[in-house]
Amino acid sequence: MDATHRALCEYGYANLTMRRISDELGKSKSLLHYHYDGKEELLVSFLEHLLDEFDRTVSTEGHGSGEETLRFTVEALLSDADCHTDFDTAMLEMGMQAPYNDDFRDQFRTNDARLKDLLSHIVADGVERGEFEEIDPERAAEHLLILLDGARGRSVVLGTDAPNDVGRAAIRDFIGRITVGGDGE
Amino acid sequence: MDATHRALCEYGYANLTMRRISDELGKSKSLLHYHYDGKEELLVSFLEHLLDEFDRTVSTEGHGSGEETLRFTVEALLSDADCHTDFDTAMLEMGMQAPYNDDFRDQFRTNDARLKDLLSHIVADGVERGEFEEIDPERAAEHLLILLDGARGRSVVLGTDAPNDVGRAAIRDFIGRITVGGDGE
Fold this sequence. Notes:
Two copies of one chain form a homodimer. By secondary structure, chain A is mainly α. Chain A has helices at about 1-10, 20-25, 30-35, 40-60, 65-80, 85-95, 100-130, 135-160, 165-180. Chains A and B meet through helix 6, helix 7, helix 8 and helix 9 of A and helix 6, helix 7, helix 8 and helix 9 of B.
């Protein structure tokens, strides 16, 4: 999965091949084919892997305020240490296959549903503790997911220098707005 | 341009050809080639045309409150009467070419800058008239653009049945939040 990540960063989705992934892995292509029928099956597993990794990252987080937990979680979704923009581009190219590939679409939906569930829970807990305003947790989660996807898409299409900074500002702004006594700007 | 729109809806970006556009137009392919070097040059003109069309739509709008004007403008950006999802998919596929095609990128940036400018002005006017809270108009405009792009992208990747409804709800929510005495949910 790490080799797939590196290969995606380097070659993007369109130019990714089983050969290139196995080269990154330092193993034979036949070994890869033993486990996966092809690039698409491997990439569906890769999407699952990303979700697992994300689950691990956020589950190690201590229990701060709702605002802190939300910020930490969103940050975990935004940051990609090594090859930021190229990886976002590759992920978006993969997403563009979803209308033509049911396995991709299903996995993207699964990942999205899990994220929505996690964010909804954080918001619901915060509302219960009086940290967030009386908002609909699902709608707040959806708002955050739309902002995350929008920020990523815009950084790819418009190619801004600091891809996620504007997106981060919008997300920070939104979290501030829903926080009781928070700073809306 | 109308023929290009129809052909994009029908064939998407990848399968669009000069032949298919000229068939939609009911003219010869050579006439099209007389005006445009190829599909990409034609599509850059098409993006310009979309911006002009949008300018015309919003300039006919009467001068309601800031909130009304903002809602009308966003609605004009969201709705595409004929071939909603397919057109959004084609536009996103075109956007995905931007990292590899400077002409596309420049035109996407031009369109985005114009929209940002328009939305900023609407917000700034509303702030001045005391209709909107004391927010940074540029940041509010950026927030709306991120939501618009995020909603479109998600409808393509996740293939929701009512593509823009969730996006509309998030945008309505945001406009409500920045409106003095508005309804944040």
